[in-house]
Design goal:
The structure is a single chain. This protein is mainly α. It has 2 domains: 182 residues, MFS general substrate transporter like domains (Growth Hormone, Chain: A, Up-down Bundle); 206 residues, Growth Hormone, Chain: A, CATH 1.20.1250. Helix 5 crosses helix 8 and helix 5 packs antiparallel against helix 21. The chain starts with a helix and ends with a helix.
C-alpha cells in the first residue's frame, strides 16, 4: 500500500499514537532537565544530590512498570489513556507546586512512570496490535511523535519559562495535555481491525506466550542484552557530554549543534526502518541494529578531530531510528500479541533500569580513574558482541516459530 493512502485511511489511529508519544515528552529527561538549574537552586541540591533524586525516582518507576504495564492487555486503549494521561498531567502540576524534597522525588517518579513509561508503552502496544502487514510503517510514524516533542515542546517550554517562570511553564504543559486528552481518547476509542484492502502479511507472529513463559525463556534474556544497550549508552553519552568536551578541547556550542544532525538522521531512519521491517521482518533486521551505535561509540572514544561529534550524532541517529521502531515491532514476532502489554512492560522496565544505571556506573568509574573515552570504546565493542548474540536470537526464534507452525 502506498504511503499517502495508508496515512489517510489510518489517520485516526496513527494520530492517536503520535499524540501519545508527543506528550510523553513531559516525562522525558530532555524536558525535565530544562528545569534542572531552578530545581537545584530552589531545593538546595548539589549536582550529585539532584542526580541521586533522579536516579532513585527513575529506578522506582522501572520497578513499577512490570506491574502497571499489563493494564494495556486487560482494558481498552481509550480507558488506559484516560488514566495514564491525567496522571502525567498531575505529575506536571506537582512539579509546578511542590516545595518539599519528598514531593519532588514522588513527582519525578510519576513523570518517569507515566511519561517515559506508560504513554509510549500504550502507544507502541496498541499500534502493534492494530497493524500487522504494515506494523513497521505504522510504528515509525507513531514514534515520530518523540522527535516532534523534542523539537517543539521543549522549545515552547523554554520560551514559557522565560516569560512566565518555570513553575508556570509546567502548569501550561499539564493544561495542554488535559485540553488535548478528549481528542486523543476519541482517536483511540475504536480498535483498528484488518481490512480487505490490507496487504497480505509477510510476517507471521509467534504463538501467544504468557509472561510466565517468557520469564522462563532464555531467549528473552539474550534479547535484553541488545534491547537495553541503546538506553544505557545514549544516556551515558548525553549525561557526560560536558566532561567529554573538556577532555577533547571541543566547543560545547559546536558539540550541541551536532544534535541537529542527530534529529534529522533519526527522523529519516525512523521512517525507513518501518519500511524495512515490513519488507524483511524485525527478526531479520535484529542482528544489525546495534552496529551503527557500536561504530559511534568507538569513534567518539578514539577520535579527537572537530568533525567527530557530527559523525557520532549521525551514527547514533541512524541506530536510534532503527532500534526504536524495531524494538517496538519485534516482540509480536517472538511472543505473539495476546499478552503483548504485559511482556513489553518487562522490556521497557529493563530499558529504563539501564538508562538510570548508566550515568551512575560510568560516573563511579570516572571517579575511580577509569578513562571515559576508554569506557566509550568498550561500549562500542559490547555492541559488536551483543550483535552476535542478537544473531543467535534471530536464527533460533525463526526456527522455533517454524516448528510451532508445523506443530499446529
Amino acid at each position: 500500500m502506498r504511503f499517502i493512502p495508508f496515512l489517510a485511511s489510518n489517520a485516526r489511529w496513527l494520530a492517536g499514537g503520535f499524540l501519545l508519544t508527543f506528550f510523553s515528552t513531559v516525562g522525558q529527561t530532555i524536558f525535565i532537565s530544562l528545569s534542572a538549574g531552578e530545581i537545584r537552586a530552589e531545593y538546595g541540591l548539589s549536582h550529585g544530590a539532584w542526580g541521586m533524586v533522579y536516579m532513585v525516582a527513575t529506578l522506582a518507576s522501572a520497578l513499577t512498570l512490570p506491574y502497571l504495564g499489563p493494564i494495556v492487555d486487560r482494558y481498552g486503549v481509550r480507558r488506559v489513556v484516560l488514566f495514564v494521561a491525567p496522571m502525567l498531567a498531575l505529575a506536571a502540576v506537582s512539579m509546578a507546586l511542590s516545595s518539599h524534597i519528598v514531593l519532588l522525588v514522588l513527582t519525578i517518579y510519576l513523570l518517569r512512570l507515566f511519561g517515559q513509561g506508560m504513554m509510549p508503552h500504550t502507544a507502541y502496544t496498541a499500534t502493534a496490535r492494530w497493524f500487522s502487514a504494515q506494523r513497521g510503517k505504522a510504528l515509525s510514524l507513531v514514534i515520530l511523535g518523540h522527535n516532534a516533542g523534542d523539537a517543539i515542546f521543549t522549545n515552547l517550554f523554554v520560551l514559557l519559562a522565560l516569560a512566565i517562570g518555570w513553575r508556570n511553564g509546567w502548569l501550561v504543559a499539564a493544561a495542554a495535555l488535559l485540553v488535548t486528552l478528549p481528542l486523543i481518547a476519541t482517536l483511540v476509542a475504536v480498535d483498528r481491525t484488518p481490512r480487505a484492502s490490507d496487504p497480505v502479511p509477510r510476517i507471521v507472529d509467534a504463538r501467544d506466550w504468557t509472561r510466565a513463559e517468557v520469564l522462563r525463556d532464555p531467549i528473552f534474556y539474550l534479547a535484553m542484552t541488545g534491547i537495553m544497550a541503546p538506553g544505557f549508552i545514549v544516556t551515558v553519552a548525553l549525561f557526560h557530554q560536558v566532561y567529554l568536551v573538556e577532555l577533547r578541547g571541543w566547543s560545547l556550542e559546536v558539540f550541541a549543534s551536532a544534535f541537529i544532525v542527530w534529529a534529522i538522521v533519526n527522523s529519516v531512519f525512523t521512517t525507513i526502518s518501518g519500511q524495512l521491517i515490513d519488507r524483511f521482518s524485525g527478526l531479520v533486521m535484529l542482528p544489525f541494529v546495534l552496529l551503527p551505535l557500536g561504530a559511534a561509540c568507538i569513534l567518539l572514544g578514539l577520535g579527537e578531530a572537530a568533525w567527530v561529534p557530527f559523525a557520532f550524532m549521525a551514527l547514533v541517529g541512524l541506530s536510534n531510528g532503527l532500534s526504536t521502531t524495531l524494538f517496538g515491532a519485534i516482540l509480536p514476532e517472538i511472543y505473539g500479541l495476546k499478552h503483548l502489554g504485559s511482556i513489553r512492560a518487562l522490556g521497557v522496565s529493563a530499558s529504563v533500569l539501564a538508562s538510570a544505571a548508566g550515568p551512575g556506573l560510568t560516573g563511579y568509574l570516572i571517579d575511580a580513574g577509569v578513562s571515559y573515552p576508554g569506557q566509550l570504546a568498550a561500549m562500542g565493542l559490547y555492541c559488536g558482541l551483543a550483535s552476535l548474540v542478537l544473531l543467535y536470537v534471530s536464527v533460533n526464534v525463526r526456527r522455533r516459530n517454524a516448528l510451532d507452525r508445523l506443530a499446529t
